[in-house]
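Practice problem 4.
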């Protein structure tokens, strides 16, 4: 087993993802400020797809997901997008909650943990 730590999208404050011991932890992904919940969710999930691909895995290997909404009243809008994105038969453990996000313009944040291939 390879115990090297691989970091993806390394920045001054954080990395987009960290891979270690067969697992990838993806940092919270947000959409474009000011977009609708539906549009932000699509952007978040597209970023998750991109980062997972760079790590060498995909959404069928997501173990868990955390979704933060600025307003739980938008739960249905987010789920509309999630339900078309998440692969049938490979749904992860998931929690959704309401929280103040980094700025009031962010309405959705998605965080996932996945198994590497």
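Answer key:
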């Amino acid at each position: 087993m390879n115990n090297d730590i691989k970091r993806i999208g390394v920045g001054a404050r954080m990395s987009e993802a960290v891979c270690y011991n067969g697992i990838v932890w993806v940092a919270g992904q947000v959409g474009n400020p000011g977009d609708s919940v539906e549009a932000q969710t699509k952007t978040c999930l597209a970023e998750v797809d991109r980062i997972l691909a760079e790590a060498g895995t995909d959404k069928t290997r997501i173990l868990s997901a955390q979704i933060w909404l600025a307003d739980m009243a938008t739960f249905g809008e987010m789920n509309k997008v999630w339900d078309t994105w998440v692969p049938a038969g490979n749904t992860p453990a998931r929690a959704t909650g309401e929280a103040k996000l980094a700025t009031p313009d962010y309405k959705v944040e998605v965080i996932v943990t996945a198994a590497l291939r």
